[in-house]
Structures are given as C-alpha cells and as structure tokens.
Amino acid sequence: MPEPSFDALYAELEEKARRLEQGNLPLEESLRLYEDGAKLVDRLRVILEKAELQVKTLQNRLEEDQFELREVEEAYEADPHPPAPSPGAAGEGE
Fold this sequence. Notes:
By secondary structure, the protein is mostly helical. The protein is 73% helix and 0% strand.
C-alpha cells in the first residue's frame, strides 16, 4: 500500500487537532489523539525534509548548468566564428 500523501497526513492531523480543541473528550481519548498527532507530525517532518533535499539537489544542478552555459556563452562571444578546419585535417594521424 503506498504511503499516504503529505496532504492526507496533514488533513488527518488537522482533524485530530480540531477534536482536541473541542475539549469534550475523555482523558484517554485526548491522550491517544495527542500521541497520534505527534506521530503524524514526525511523518510530515520526514516528508518535508525529503522534499527540501530534493529542492536543494535541483537548485545545485541548476546552478551547475547555468555556470556551464555561461562558460559556453563566453567562449562563443570571445570567438563567434572559429576558423574552419583545413581540408587535410580530417583523418590526419589515422
């Protein structure tokens, strides 16, 4: 069975918090809801940490790609029309 989504877990947490805020529950049920809510918070935190790591990875990859693109652009701007290879250059040394 797939892991519940962040939104589903968050909705479950909100429902538990809403029930606790009503204040008309027996102590045992209030404690159970609180413990269940704490477990949900831990699961949500793990999901958020994984998402944050993915975002950082994508940001690093984007920065690397932008750096490489700037290098290519600078090389092209420095010499937009490199000399054509001489006719005998292809195949030399083979």
